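Design job #97: recover the sequence.
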């Protein structure tokens, strides 16, 4: 899968990020060689839907998501195969930038960052090292 860093629009660059790690949550982590930002991307199936939220099972964990982080006009349904990005929050993780994953198609994960969590993640990582 090709994952794009979204932080170089000002110089019209879309650098491909490098996969470097499988996270303990069962997702893949990618790093940008230009800015060192990290994105964690996962795939799985929608397992639970309730009102305005649900859970995606990625084979390791059930990951919470809110409908406001569905990409474009994707209508979620049980067993839908999805790609998503992981947002790191104070009290856990959440799936954002969720899109339907059509197997057979070349996967490029660009994502509209409705909220920029990637800076957050980098900052958290630095704080943890200092502790
Ligand atoms: Zn970058």
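Job complete. Output follows.
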């Amino acid at each position: 899968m090709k994952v794009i860093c979204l932080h170089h629009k000002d110089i019209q660059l879309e650098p491909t990020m490098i996969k470097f790690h499988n996270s303990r949550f069962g997702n893949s982590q990618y790093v940008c060689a230009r800015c060192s930002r990290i994105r964690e991307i996962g795939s799985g199936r929608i397992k639970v839907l309730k009102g305005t939220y649900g859970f995606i099972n990625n084979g390791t964990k059930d990951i919470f998501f809110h409908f406001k982080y569905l990409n474009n006009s994707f209508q979620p349904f049980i067993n839908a195969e999805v790609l998503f990005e992981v947002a790191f929050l104070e009290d856990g993780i959440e799936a954002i930038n969720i899109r339907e994953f059509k197997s057979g198609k070349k996967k490029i994960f660009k994502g509209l960052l409705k909220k920029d969590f990637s800076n957050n993640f980098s900052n958290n990582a630095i704080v943890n090292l200092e502790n």
